[in-house]
Write a structure and sequence with these properties.
With about 140 residues, the protein is an alpha/beta fold. It has one domain: STAS domain (Transcription Regulator spoIIAA), CATH 3.30.750.24. The protein has four helices and five strands, in the order ββαβαβαβα. α1 packs parallel to α2 and α2 runs parallel beside α3.
Length: about 140
């Protein structure tokens, strides 16, 4: 899996491509959190439309749990608000039942998954030109 990040106007954009692997996904999430902390980013647009594969049910569960725990840890340690995470994915990486999203959300992560970029930007309260709103949930 290849990870590329870009930060502007309070929004960290993350693009991931390649074959899904739970261990690589976890490492990519940690790398993303490093960028969140470095830029003090309040919002993350995670574009995984370039991912292939079909994560197993338990992989979805473990990733959601991991992301929630690690994002809470980073926010606590850095004394910053928990960032919003919008994931843009396509099936079969995108789970129509949103198991990973539900697991993470139930553990306090501010996260939502989408099948299109526009919906993710609207939820993040960011206009398509990349201007981030200033509100937090």
């Amino acid at each position: 899996m290849q990870l590329k990040t870009q930060f502007a106007a309070g929004l960290l954009e993350v693009e991931v491509r390649g074959q899904f692997s739970l261990e690589e996904a976890k490492q990519n999430f940690l790398d993303t959190l490093d960028s969140v902390v470095r830029h003090r980013a309040g919002k993350v647009l995670f574009d995984g439309r370039g991912l292939t594969g079909e994560p197993e049910v338990m992989e979805r569960f473990f990733y959601g749990e991991f992301a929630a725990v690690e994002s809470a840890r980073a926010a606590r340690e850095q004394n910053m608000p928990r960032p919003w995470f919008a994931y843009v994915l396509e099936e079969p990486v995108l789970d129509p039942r949103r198991l990973g999203e539900n697991v993470a959300s139930n553990r306090g992560m501010i996260v939502k998954t989408f099948n299109n970029r526009q919906g993710a930007l609207e939820w993040l309260q960011v206009d398509p030109a990349g201007n981030s709103g200033e509100s937090y949930p």
